[in-house]
Design goal:
Blueprint: E1 4-8, H1 13-21, E2 26-30, H2 41-47, E3 56-61, H3 66-75, E4 79-84, H4 90-94, E5 100-105, H5 112-118, E6 124-128, E7 155-157, H6 166-173, E8 177-180, E9 185-187, E10 190-191, H7 193-204, H8 207-211
Parallel strand pairs: 1-2, 1-8, 2-3, 3-4, 4-5, 5-6, 6-7, 7-8
Antiparallel strand pairs: 9-10
Length: about 210
């Protein structure tokens, strides 16, 4: 019952190396120019140099044009997972014939069980804090009690996670994976190695708990 970890919003080669060395399962690059963590294909090509085997490289998009996604996939062969963080339909997400996860902002009226059916071919659902005008990366958490005890798809928990609260989040939600960005930064897009290490240690501390 090991909880997987993805560090998202990486913008520097050194941060990618630190995250991989510290044992993350996945890294995320943001292809959304309004984001302070956004990168271009050229920047991503440099960032991804030296990524070791068995690390899932995730490309995050927010309501992209088809050509934007296709350009990333054709020019960055290391990308093996797509993450859609906007209002993309299931048909849009699946057309690239690549594994994907769908982010679901936790609005008051959201029905996760229904969303799992709508995005039936997604590998998992990523739940994040809903904040109008900000498609993720708000640095704020939401009420984890709103999440169902079971879901037909792997649940990835995001939104305001830090080394301080991630163990509590795992204890309450028992997600398949956790996704962190701002919670391990000293500035937007700039990761802090010690914070990543503390985050990984906190996640690892829950392994015995989940096995009980």
């Amino acid at each position: 019952m090991r909880t997987r970890v993805k560090v998202c919003g990486l913008t520097r080669v050194a941060d990618v190396q630190d995250a991989c060395d510290l044992g993350v399962d996945a890294i995320g690059l943001v292809f959304y120019s309004p984001s302070p963590r956004g990168v271009t294909i050229e920047q991503a090509r440099d960032i991804l140099q030296g990524v070791p085997p068995f690390i899932t490289v995730t490309a995050l998009f927010v309501n992209p044009e088809v050509s934007e996604v296709e350009a990333v996939l054709s020019q960055l062969p290391a990308v093996s997972l797509l993450q859609f963080h906007g209002d993309e339909t299931p048909a849009f997400c699946r057309q690239f014939r690549r594994a994907y996860i769908k982010a679901i902002p936790m609005r008051e009226e959201v029905d996760l069980a229904q969303q799992a059916q709508v995005y039936a071919d997604a590998l998992g659902l990523l739940v994040d804090t809903y904040k109008p005008g900000i498609p993720g990366g708000s640095g704020e958490s939401f009420d984890w009690h709103r999440l169902p005890q079971s879901l037909s798809k792997p649940l990835i928990l995001a939104g305001g996670l830090t080394p301080v609260n991630v163990a509590q989040a795992i204890q309450k939600v028992r997600p398949y994976a956790v996704d962190v960005s701002g919670g391990v930064e000293f500035a937007k897009g700039l990761k802090d190695k010690q914070s990543i290490a503390a985050f990984m240690e906190a996640v690892g501390s829950m392994s015995c708990y989940l096995e009980d």
